[in-house]
Amino acid sequence: MHFIRCWRRSAPFITAIRSLPVKRLLCSIGSEEDTIFALSSGQGRCGVAVIRVSGPASALAVRCLTSSARGLPAARTATLRNIKHPQTQELLDRGLVLWFPGPGSFTGEDCAEFHIHGGPAVINGVLQALGSLPGLRPAESGEFTRRAFYAGKLDLTEVEGLGDLIHAETEAQRRQALRQMAGDLGRVYQDWSVRLKRCLAHVEAFIDFSEDELIEDGILNDVDTAVRQLQTEMENHLLDQRRGERLRSGVQMVIAGSTNAGKSSLLNMLTQRPAAIVSPTAGTTRDVVEVPLDIGGYPVLLSDTAGLRDTTDSVEQEGVRRARQRVEQADLSLVVVDLTQLPSDPQLVPVFLTGHLRNILEHSCHRQHCVLILNKSDLISAEQNSSIRASLWLADDVPPACFLSCHTKDGLDGLLTVLQDRLKTLCGDPLIGSPSLTQTRHRTHLQKSIEALHQYYQYKDVDLVLAAEGLRLGLNSLGRITGRVGAEEILDVIFKDFCIGK
After folding, report:
1. Does an H or E element contain 71, and which?
2. Which of 56, 333, 339, 449 suits 295 as a labelling partner, its CA being 20 to 30 A distant?
3. Would you call 76 helix, strand, or coil by DSSP?
4. Which of 182, 220, 156 is CA-nearest to residue 478?
5. Domain ranges for the chain
6. What's the fold here for domain 246-427?
7. What is the DSSP string of 198-257?
């Protein structure tokens, strides 16, 4: 028991050794002493290009390229300067220079920015000039943000939010990324870490000093209550139905139905271009056609699939198999039905549609993951239309239907309204409520943390040392989300998606 207690007392020290010096040493060996530079604005011709410099030789770079007797510009003030090659003194451009002394900069180091004209020749000239200076080298992908992380300017959730903001293509993605970059998600995890650390400290204090009667009565009961509350909050956080992850990566929406129901016509209408071949010949679509869309600010990957029917054609059979696979994986299925193929008796329509949906969706819950689209409304009479609507109104097993004509586009506005409502339900409003999970790794580490808290409850009445280790493991898993501990092995995964110059 004495050996176990000595090992336990050394664990916090070992954790501290692992979390701080290792990553500092890894960063400082070689690259951290370098001054890096890169084009931080977009590639191609543009009015203004921004070249960023960060590191101890940033001031040297400014002085050498501006060769001005006035010295460095005032901090965080745009100053117009001639930019010259440091060796030939050839004028490269005339632009704005900004100076950001550390630690009050994005990376925490001395930084400078050159705002120059965006022609390729100008950009290449300034980059070559910087590369000719001693101690300067081109930056690697994400290296500026990596240095900001090491300097404590950003935690890993904020880094990921910045990456998501750079890649955001819709309004909802932008809002979620901005909120995460502002630290909302990181603060949730940090609050849990602080509370769990307090619980661990109380348990360790009880182990060390309870025999000396220096611990208040009921402290373990308080820990039990706090851990239970933390566990509940974490579990509720995981029960978000992947809203944040879905918003980040895009909603998987598939168009499914029988042949010649108008699926490809619907795809072309939603994309406003001939993305898929439309033909009266049944079975024209053999493979999955994917198109990214922005519907109401939400990202969608829309897939058109082969018509679902029995066939002896081996190629079409493969298309049907892929179509059913996509329906199974989809977040939302648009089931298209040809109105002219419905039973002539309106009273039989609900039964027909219920069986049709069951055949198309199979294991999916059609009311939650389906939008029923009754196409070719221009080919039926107004009386038939009204009769079908009336029969569907009284049906409990059929989801609300959208009447549509892909030929005349009648009903398109109503369909788009329904789709926006479904997408908002699937993704949520990124500005309302607690911030959502956005990364699979967050979910993985939270699940491990919850499992570790189960270990606490498993051993708390048997061996407090092992119970405390459960709290320590849970705290470690939380720290891996924000990068407080054990971050080194996941840094490359996070930073690899950043562009050069960021």
Report:
1. none
2. 339
3. coil
4. 156
5. 34-153, 171-239+437-495, 246-427
6. Rossmann fold (3.40.50)
7. HHHHHHHHHHHHGGGT-S-TTHHHHHHHHHHHHHHHHHHHH-STTHHHHHHH-EEEEEEE
Mapped onto helix, strand or coil, the DSSP state of residue 293 is strand
Task: Say if CB 297 and CB 171 are below 8 A apart.
Answer: yes
pLDDT for 327-363, tens place per residue?
A: 898 999 999 999 999 999 999 999 999 999 988 887 6
- pTM of the model as a whole: 0.80
3-class SS of residue 36: strand
Q: Which residues are registered as beta bridge partners of 84? A: 91
CA distance 264 to 20: 56
CATH architecture of 34-153: 2-Layer Sandwich (3.30)
What whole-number distance in Å separates Cα of residue 439 and Cα of residue 243? Answer: 11
CB 388 within 8 A of CB 341: no
Contact indicator for 477, 445 with CB cutoff of 8 Å: yes
Measured distance CA(101)–CA(241) in Å, rounded: 44
Backbone φ/ψ region at 319: left (φ over 0), alpha (ψ -120 to 50), beta: alpha
Domain 171-239+437-495 has CATH 3.40.1000.10: no
Pair 376, 405: CB distance under 8 Å: yes
Token pair 């029960």 is found at: 239
- Kindly state the helix (H) or strand (E) to which residue 8 belongs, with its residue range: helix 2-19
Which range (49-58, 94-103, 232-241, 306-315) has the least confidence?
Answer: 306-315
For residue 57, what are its two tokens? 């030789």
Packed helices 184-209 and 156-167: angle between N→C axes, nearest 10 degrees: 170
Q: Are 92 and 85 in contact (CB under 8 A)?
A: yes
Strand order in the sheet with 370-375: 289-295, 298-304, 251-257, 332-338, 370-375, 401-403
Helix, strand counts (H, E) of the chain: 18, 12
281: left (phi over 0), alpha (psi -120 to 50) or beta: beta
pLDDT in tens, 421-431: 999 999 999 98
Question: What stretch of H or E contains 116?
Answer: strand 111-118
Q: Which two tokens stand for residue 240?
A: 């978000």
DSSP 418-463: HHHHHHHHHH--TTSSSPPP--HHHHHHHHHHHHHHHHHHHHTTT-
Closest alpha carbon to 377 in 398, 351, 408, 354: 408
- DSSP label at residue 411: T
